[in-house]
Design goal:
Blueprint lengths: L1 H42 L2 H8 L7 H29 L6 H10 L8 H6 L3 H25 L5 H23 L9 H23 L4 H11 L2 H33 L6 E2 H14 L1 H5 L1 H8 L7 H33 L3 H25 L5 H5 L1 H16 L3 E2 L1
Helix pairs in contact: 1-3, 1-4, 1-6, 1-9, 1-10, 3-4, 4-7, 6-7, 8-15, 9-10, 9-15, 10-14, 11-14, 13-14, 14-17, 15-17
Length: about 400
């Protein structure tokens, strides 16, 4: 179902690019990246923690009420933070009104109640929610983009918020109760405990935005609007592919839990890396065709296509680096070495931001994709060094 939603999203992005044009599509990419970061802040690692600690118990009794109160609280805090961010940092940005609209939309995320359906094993209800969102998203965005032909950021952002309401409303009917509005002393203690426990997960989640997305922000400050728009096409493709890589990590994690082996094998890492390299070959060998096929409705020009192809060819290296370290990260997560994992992720993110910040002032904008890979290189080398030092890598 998630693959279907991703497919619909790619189709919608096509029409958005066609309606907005290259420059505004770049600004729209900044808006979407901002929104994704504040979604991560709203989650704050809580979904992972709830699944790991409580499971089905999170859907019953007082614990359910406390968990729902916690989710509402973190979402409200994130929405308020996004409004403040928009006023302070985006007040003169073309996406300003879109930022305010999507900040309001944080309160009505279509996936807000996913934790409830998953913890309770309510798979039919989860499926209904996903189908409802896919249908409403397709219908509302189709009307907005094709029938009404919205060609500015704010009304498109509003359409996205409206598209999420049916699935959110379904979740409210299934899980909401007026009792969650009463927050007592027990609830406050529960909040404090959960925030303390979720910090490592939150750091790992939020620090990940210092990798690929930082290139988009660097391009918005150090390059022309046309370059930003061109970069955004390549960025979206790599982000989509990186999201699919998460499924490999999950599968690997399940396999690792079935064995007590503490040894990583170069052979396995090499085979998986070659597989990812082969699958991503069109990105690096035929980037022009790939972009024109996937973004078939985009208003391509020769200059935009050339720049976007260059960015895509370079950013594809990120997928290779992710493949190399996939088993290493899965192993750290299996062994619950969250402190080490979060430290490495944070250090890599800080290093990546520093390289992009200083490098963008020293090199031409065409070098921004290469600068963006600094964090990936750092994290991959650091993980390889750690496992080599522990003598846990074998042929």
């Amino acid at each position: 179902m998630n693959i279907l939603i991703q497919g619909v999203s790619v189709l919608v992005q096509n029409i958005i690019a066609n309606n907005l044009g290259i420059v505004n599509f770049g600004y729209f990419g900044i808006l979407q990246s901002d929104y994704t970061i504040f979604c991560a802040l709203a989650d704050f690692g809580m979904a992972t923690l709830i699944l790991a600690y409580f499971g089905k118990r999170a859907t019953e009794g007082r614990l359910f009420r406390n968990v729902l109160q916690l989710r509402l609280l973190t979402t409200a805090i994130a929405a308020s933070a996004m409004v403040i961010f928009a006023i302070v940092a985006r007040h003169d940005h073309p996406a300003f009104w879109g930022e305010l609209i999507l900040a309001f939309g944080l309160l009505f995320q279509h996936a807000f109640f996913d934790w409830y359906f998953i913890c309770g094993n309510f798979w039919k209800k989860l499926l209904i929610s996903k189908i409802l969102h896919t249908v409403s998203y397709t219908a509302i965005m189709g009307i907005a983009l094709c029938a009404l032909r919205f060609d500015s950021i704010a009304p498109i952002a509003l359409s996205m918020v409206l598209a999420a309401l049916p699935a959110f409303g379904f979740g409210v009917r299934q899980a909401f109760t007026p009792a969650v509005l009463s927050i007592g002393r027990h609830a406050r203690r529960f909040f404090a405990l959960m925030f303390k426990s979720a910090v490592p997960y939150a750091i790992a989640s939020i620090a990940s935005f210092a990798y690929l997305p930082v290139g988009l922000y660097t391009a918005s400050h150090a390059a022309t609007p046309e370059f930003l728009g061109s970069y955004n096409f390549a960025h979206k493709l790599i982000i989509l592919a990186s999201g699919l890589m998460v499924h490999f990590i999950s599968s690997s994690l399940i396999s690792l839990h079935q064995t007590d082996s503490r040894t990583l094998h170069l052979r396995d890492i090499g085979i998986f890396t070659l597989f990812i390299a082969a699958v991503s070959t069109p990105f690096s060998v035929f980037p022009e065709w790939t972009l024109k096929i996937i973004f078939f409705a985009a208003p391509w020009t020769s200059d935009v296509l050339y720049t976007s192809s260059l960015c895509l060819r370079i950013l594809t290296c990120s997928l290779i680096l992710q493949a190399i370290r996939m088993n290493m990260i899965s192993t750290l997560l299996k062994e619950r070495r969250m402190a080490l994992y979060c430290t490495l992720i944070a250090l890599g993110g800080i290093f990546n931001i520093g390289v992009c910040y200083y490098g963008s002032g020293m090199f031409a904008p065409e070098c921004i994709p290469a600068l963006t890979l600094a964090g990936d290189v750092f994290l991959t080398v650091a993980l390889a060094f750690y496992f080599t030092l522990k003598r846990r890598i074998r042929w």
